[in-house]
Amino acid sequence: MTNMTNTAQTTQSLVNQDNCQINQISLSEGIDTIEIIHSRCKAIVSLYAGHVLSWQPTSQREVFWLSEATKYAQGSAIRGGIPLCWPWFGPKVGEVNHGFTRTSIWQLADVSSNDDGVSLILTFAGESLAKTWPYRFKLTQTLFFGDVFKQTLKIDNLGEQAFEHSGALHSYFHVSQPEQACVPNLTNIPYYDKLTDSERCTRLIDCRGPKDRVYKSNEALALLDYGFNRKLVISTKGTQDWVLWNPGQEVASSMSDIHPRGEQHFVCLEAGFTKPLTLAAGQSYEVSQKIAIQAI
Ligand SMILES: O=P(O)(O)OC[C@H]1O[C@@H](O)[C@H](O)[C@@H](O)[C@@H]1O
């Protein structure tokens, strides 16, 4: 968060209790963050992009990786945390990679806390926000930060025609080293390998990059980290696949928003529905993930 602290800030207190402080911090360029300090955890969420930046349960290491070189500026995607990819996953000619949601401003609709943690509700609605995607929609993101983390994205089609959409909860998990991290549940699961444009099924030994794979599984999985001696147990609803991505050293060093050697400390495990689904007029669709931490 080093490059956030240099920008002009004003702070508004939203909750001020013995076990919980929640502040809304306005950075320059119209970017606001919600900072949570609770007896169970600390967390930061950006209203720009509706983006979780940080979650650190008390007595644990940070769970999400966030680039020290990312920009906090309108029009730029934030590198790290949990970008929300929607209404499409991946590239689209003439449009922003992974959809406009991650470069749009969200509203804070509700904040609440109890002894277990903090819940936030964020919303983002619009119509015709992309040349190739002229539909009317509302997104409602519900977040819970405590000993566990829960995230639900509800998508409402508010228009009068069906639309196609795809997306992902694109989590960047903080790991000791990709070489020390593995996901046993993905071993022997068939995947589409974006790097070779081929369907494959190989043993997954560790998470070192370059890897860019769409696994055909939506089963709960565990990201084991033998350097940090912890296991992140991730379960989902409403998704179709898991995307495993780490750019590797060569590609990362050409990306201006990844700090030097930054790729040595994250593994992206994205809860996705990467193949387009049809959402009828007036209908809604939900994707969610829950993350718990266990020692190994
Ligand atoms: O640079 P972006 O748009 O944030 O995308 C990062 C990566 O996101 C992953 O989801 C994709 O599978 C990769 O192909 C892509 O490189």
Write up this protein.
With 296 residues, this protein is mainly β. The chain has one domain (74-295): Beta-galactosidase, Chain A, domain 5 (Distorted Sandwich), CATH 2.70.98.10. It contains 2 helices and 20 strands. The strands form 3 sheets. An 8-stranded antiparallel β-sheet has the order 7-8-9-10-20-17-16-12, with no helix packed on it. Strands 6-11-19-18-15-13-14 form a 7-stranded antiparallel β-sheet, with no helix packed on it. The structure holds 6-O-phosphono-beta-D-glucopyranose (BG6). 6-O-phosphono-beta-D-glucopyranose is lined by residues 77, 97-98, 170, 194, 212, 243, 245, 270.
Mean pLDDT: 96
Per the CATH scheme, the topology name is Beta-galactosidase, Chain A, domain 5
Assign the CATH architecture: Distorted Sandwich
Count of alpha/pi helices: 2
| Major sheet summary line | 8 strands, antiparallel
SSE string: HEEEEEEEEEEEEEEEEEEHEE
Radius of gyration: 18 Å
Name the hetero compounds present. 6-O-phosphono-beta-D-glucopyranose
